[in-house]
Write a structure and sequence with these properties.
CATH superfamily of one domain: NADH:ubiquinone oxidoreductase Nqo5 subunit
Number of helices: 3
CATH architecture of one domain: 2-Layer Sandwich
Largest sheet: 5 strands, mixed
Strand order of the largest sheet: 1-2-5-4-3
CATH topology of one domain: Beta Polymerase, domain 2
Order of helices and strands: HEEHEEEEHE
Radius of gyration: 17 Å
Length: about 160
């Protein structure tokens, strides 16, 4: 199996719901309650050293429960390996703790996931729209977002 997934299961046994490794890509589905602790472990463990948060994205599985997923794509520059960490969130509570304290650069990725999917990153220092204008209503990458929805018109700033 994978050293990454083995270390993760060893340290967070009760918080790792599932793991798999396909074609060298390691993936773990974890509980949201300890996400910051899990991410900090992946960054700081001397055998792992995931020092680069390559990406974070949201996924909408409309019709499923839990509906949303947050996916962290991490890379270790020194160990030359990657891991994908997934967290599922229920539609009625799409909230997860921010990872800005672990990787400050993840700030913009979290803002994008909030802007597009409405996933709230609790404790984020500046959780506001990053791609859309402030008056935009809704979150357009949600699968139930109405295609024909009209948005408020914005004029030139005064």
């Amino acid at each position: 199996m994978s050293i990454v997934l083995d270390r993760l299961r060893e340290r967070f046994q009760a918080d790792v719901a599932s793991t798999h490794s396909d074609f060298g890509d390691d993936t773990a589905l974890v509980r949201r309650e300890r996400i910051v602790e899990i991410l900090t472990f992946l960054r700081d463990d001397p055998e792992l050293l995931f020092d680069f948060a390559m990406d974070l994205t949201g996924v909408d599985y409309l019709g499923e429960d839990p509906r949303f997923e947050v996916v962290y794509h991490l890379y270790s520059l020194t160990k030359k390996r990657r891991v994908r960490i997934k967290v599922r969130l229920h539609e009625e509570d799409p909230v997860i703790d921010t990872a800005v304290s672990v990787w400050p650069g993840i700030d913009w990725y979290e803002r994008e996931a909030w802007d597009m999917y409405g996933i709230v990153f609790r404790g984020h220092p500046n959780l506001k729209r990053i791609l859309l204008y402030e008056a935009f209503e809704g979150h357009p990458l949600r699968k139930d977002y109405p295609k024909a929805k009209r948005q408020p018109t914005i004029g030139p700033e005064e």
